[in-house]
Design brief:
Elements (H helix, E strand, L loop, with lengths): L5 E4 L5 H10 L4 E4 L3 H8 L10 H9 L3 E3 L10 E4 L14 H13 L5 E4 L7 H10 L11 E4 L18 E5 L2 H11 L6 E3 L3 H31 L4 H8 L23 H10 L6 H27 L8 E5 L14 H11 L3 E5 L5 E4 L2 E4 L5 H6 L2 E4 L8 H7 L3 E3 L5
Parallel strand pairs: 1-2, 1-4, 2-3, 4-5, 5-6, 7-8, 9-10, 9-13, 13-14
Antiparallel strand pairs: 6-7, 11-12
């Protein structure tokens, strides 16, 4: 029996893995994105995300996966899943331009019987206050003519311990009939679904997951800075504390938090809370600490270079890792990028190696990832580890680097 067609709108770090997973479950999938470069790569059987292999793309294409710009093909889909980016704008407020644009596109093409599911991270009330208003312009009635729900994405890029289908899926709907439709469909894709009472609960669920991580990671970053001045090895302290079998979860320090979720989602919550005259002092403090970390790392680098013989500005700094976390090519909100920029502003000579980030443009200048070898390491006066990628030869770094600042604890 032929399964219903599914359209995934937005083929980024969330949408592409989800689209491939749905295709593997036997559903015919239409992938929709405005980025023609992405679409061309997919049509050529190439992936642009580490979590999805070239082989998986080729197999999906053989099975009938279609990658297209927005168009009328979406009218033939039984289910439409929206995975577009929802960043913050320059003033720190939610930027829902892509979400509104996708919603308007869907509204123009919405057909009776379709189920529309949003996975983009956003503030509580978005589905009810923004999306519903746009889709209602179709003239169709939600819960009767079409179905509308929200299910927060829980993809963890670079984490292969938890395949997508094993991660419990929180589901919600604007009406009970909507929730039932979403739950019924997602039950065929994931091992476990977690229905909740209202989309606001599902939207808030995503935010609290990342608020918790922001607060805890910022906490250990702040404590590590204090422990440095007290001559205490904080990582050893953490490892000792983590032997307690209850009541303690270790979080590890680094150069700061990056990616699309952890630095952004808590500020979505803050923005919404202010609409009610409220604000979280803890989130505000954690955000401040996180923003300070790249400056702290750059200061450490500067002090280390000054302690070496000769002119610090003539010393060569090699950064290892620009991605915001290990084993991904995502540099959005990356603290490593911020450190890179600060060092350039301070006048230092900087090169980098990242097996996942081939090049990066900073202040209109293009920098290319250097090949990791003995010569590269020995040519650097200081090696700074900013991202702990699994496929970096850390023993080579340990053997040949003249001096190392290790922000990830791999050396």
């Amino acid at each position: 029996m032929q399964k219903d067609k599914v359209a995934v709108v937005g083929l980024g770090y969330v949408g592409l893995p989800l689209a491939v997973h749905i295709q593997q479950k036997g559903y015919p999938v239409i992938g929709i994105d405005k980025d023609k470069n992405k679409l061309q790569l997919l049509q050529n059987g190439q992936s642009y995300i580490p979590d999805v292999t070239h082989h998986q793309i080729k197999e999906a294409m053989k099975a009938g996966f279609q990658a297209n710009v927005p168009g009328e093909l979406i009218r033939g889909a039984k289910y439409i899943i929206v995975c577009v980016p929802t960043p913050l704008d320059d003033s720190g407020e939610p930027e829902l331009g892509a979400l509104k644009s996708a919603s308007a596109f869907i509204s123009r093409n919405l057909q009776p019987g379709q189920t529309v599911i949003y996975e983009s991270s956003t503030y509580p009330g978005t589905l009810e206050e923004v999306v519903w208003n746009i889709l209602s312009k179709s003239g169709l009635k939600v819960g009767q003519d079409f179905y509308l729900g929200y299910s927060p994405e829980r993809i963890d890029p670079g984490n292969h311990r938890y395949p997508l289908e094993t991660i419990p899926k929180v589901v919600s709907g604007l009406t009970n009939a909507c929730k039932e439709k979403v739950n019924q469909f997602y039950s065929t894709l994931f091992h476990k679904t977690v229905p909740v009472s209202h989309p606001r609960v599902a939207e808030m669920c995503k935010l609290i997951e990342n608020i918790q991580r922001l607060v805890n990671i910022s906490l250990v970053n702040e404590i590590e800075i204090i422990c440095e001045s007290m001559n205490i090895d904080f990582r050893e302290t953490l490892q000792a504390a983590a032997t307690k079998p209850f009541g303690f979860t270790p979080y590890f320090p680094g150069p700061g938090i990056g990616g699309h979720c952890i630095p952004v989602d808590p500020l979505y919550f803050q923005w919404k809370a202010k609409k009610y005259g409220k604000s979280s002092k803890l989130i505000e403090a954690a955000h401040e600490i996180n923003n300070y970390m790249p400056f702290h790392i750059a200061e450490r680098i500067g002090k280390k270079l000054e302690s070496l013989p000769g002119d610090p500005k003539e010393k060569k700094v090699l950064l290892i890792g620009l991605a915001y976390k290990k084993d991904v090519n995502d540099i959005r909100e990356s603290s490593a990028i911020k450190v890179f920029k600060l060092l350039l502003q301070m006048g230092y000579q900087v090169e980098y190696h990242d097996p996942f980030v081939s090049n990066v443009t900073l202040s209109s200048e293009k920098y290319v990832s250097k090949v990791m070898n003995k010569g590269l390491l020995q040519s650097a006066d200081l090696v700074v580890i900013l991202t702990d990628h699994s496929n970096v030869d850390w023993s080579l770094v340990k053997s040949h680097a003249k001096a190392v600042i290790d922000t990830r604890g791999v050396i």
